[in-house]
Design a protein that fits this description.
The structure is a single chain. By secondary structure, the protein is mainly α. It has two domains: 15-115, Orthogonal Bundle (Arc Repressor Mutant, subunit A), CATH 1.10.10; 160-288, no CATH class. It has helices at 22-25, 34-52, 68-75, 79-91, 119-130, 133-136, 141-156, 160-182, 185-191, 196-210, 226-233, 238-250, 258-288, and strands spanning 95-98, 107-110, 216-219, 222-225. The strands form two sheets. A two-stranded antiparallel ribbon has the order 1-2. The chain has a two-stranded antiparallel ribbon with strand order 3-4. Strand 1 (95-98) and strand 2 (107-110) form a beta hairpin. Residues 15-89 form the Replication initiator A N-terminal domain. Pfam families: DUF6017, RepA_N.
Length: 289
Amino acid sequence: MTLDYFYGQAGKLFSFYRIPKALFQEQRFQNLSTDAKTLYGILLDRMSLSVKNEWFDKQGRVFIIFTIEDVKRALCCADNKATKLLRELENFGLIERKRRGLGKPSLVYVKNFSSNLSNERVQNRENHESGSPKNACQDSPKSRCNKNKKSKTERNNTNPILSDELEKMKNRKLLEEYFSRSLEIELLLRLYPDDEDTIYQIVDLLVDTCDSKRKLIRIAGDDKPAEVVLSRLKKLNADHIRFVLDCLAANTSPIRNMKQYLLAALFNAPTTIQLYYQNKVNHDLAARR
């Protein structure tokens, strides 16, 4: 594939993620992986959506919702790497995650480390952004008026991408609330405190699958109609999740694709749960004889 060159200001046509230079220049971030730095830039970008949607806590702090699945989609990586990158950012103090329970995704606070930068670096950044005072004063009253009108018009226009994103987040929230109730997440967390992360991952997987726009969903290597899959998943209850957790605990072989394994186990749970426990009962009875 042969690509064209950039001419003039063509490079400004793209939208960009902003990654602070300090993450690459400061000694304290030297051991932070490049992928983690990229993820931090993506999380910073998501904050603009939270501000637009007025997602502030009681202390006025901005938070975002960015799940493991969101990380996987953004960076095209697997579960393990997505989890590792979030923990890496936490270890460096660049983010803070707050669990909410009830199957709801964690709140993510993107931390501001700029207050710890050296005065010289902050001053250089301010000089670079502000420009010279001479240039700042050269705008005529007419041009300033035009800029104000343009800014007002831009604020009044609805961003279709932002609207779609907000609608998607609203749909996810409804699905999260539905599965939190139907699966009795609070009860499961009390019964399986050591499997908290797995329970939240199951909820995220169910929400992602039911929120998908695909017509076919792959289950255990077979493509099944989305309507069939969604109907089955929405009939799950707490007993089915306990069954899946028990199957995970009993499994001793390595699982290559945890997402596909969980999805297949959840889909098949209503039809296999009775046979599974009946087999365990038969095994226990035979062992006592």
